[in-house]
Amino acid sequence: MRARAVDPPSEAVALDSLAGRVLAEHVRARTDHPAFTNSAMDGFAVRADDVASGATVRLVGESRAGVPFAGTVGPGEAVRISTGAEVPEGADAILRKEDADDRGDAVAATVPPSPGTSLRRRGEDVREGQVLLAAGHRVAPHEVGVVAAAGHARVSCLRRPRVVVVGSGDELVQPGERPGPGQVFDSNRHGIAAQARAAGADVVRLALVPDDLAATEAALREALDGDDPDVLVTIGGVSVGRHDHLRPALEACGVRQVFFGVAIRPGHPLWLGERGEQRVLGLPGNPVSSAVCFHAFGRELLGVPDDWDARLPLASAYRKDTPRTELVRCREMDGALHPLPRQGSHAITSLASATHLAVIPADRDEVPAGELLRTARLD
Fold this sequence. Notes:
alpha+beta, six-stranded mixed β-sheet, 28 strands
């Protein structure tokens, strides 16, 4: 999937929209940080040698945040200073307010500072031109302030992948409505759309089509041509039943099949196709299969790196009854994985309770308690 991940163009993104976006280029500091040597405390900017013996020094001015002292601190002089204010030339230490005998026009040290005390020196944190966040990094909310502190109002990010989600089936009724005979609530489209958004996508439309070939082809043409998504996600209808129309409809729309069927459970009837730069991911119709397959394959198709490297111990022995690789829904408690009791592809309770997917390899029938398994966290 990584080789077929979408590659959207870049765009400039303002700070208030930056959280969650993927950087298209490095973010470098535009200035040193701190940009000037400043005080870490309220107090007095002094020459440490002048106050070392408890001598009184004369106050010649003030440096406060945004209004620095314009002169130089000479022998026997000091400047009243606020936290964050620029340290004037000549001073080499900050005499903290609580360590000083402030006499209004003069000050003496009750606890003399050493040279460098309470100074935050220019560039000690970041140097101009230093890379703070690398291209390809997804910006977390707490990192937006870092970008602002580096002097950037806008930065270049990859455009969010455009996604359309198309569900299919005569049996589907919208949540909030009353199901008729043989009908079920349409949960998949809303769940997959939420997963896509969490992976950084812009879900531009949700559509629903009945089990009819002509209607399915029309809906897919509208999605591929009208919405122009980077990824079209279809749900259900990709298998080989007489009412499964998505594959022939996609073929009629010019979508080339890349593969059909994956040796995993849940999610065996997974389909991938492409049309030019567009990708089409055909998910199974069962809600658990759909959600698990999107996490395992759809996220990577959207450019989210594979996150299956973490390993956690299994709390109790697990036996599988399939020759395929099984992605087991588990709940992590006290650092161990507890497989949920209902693992069927229809059991939505396993989605409500799961925190992780754990990989049971195809060549293993039973895994003992305590064995470390590859996992992916369900975020």
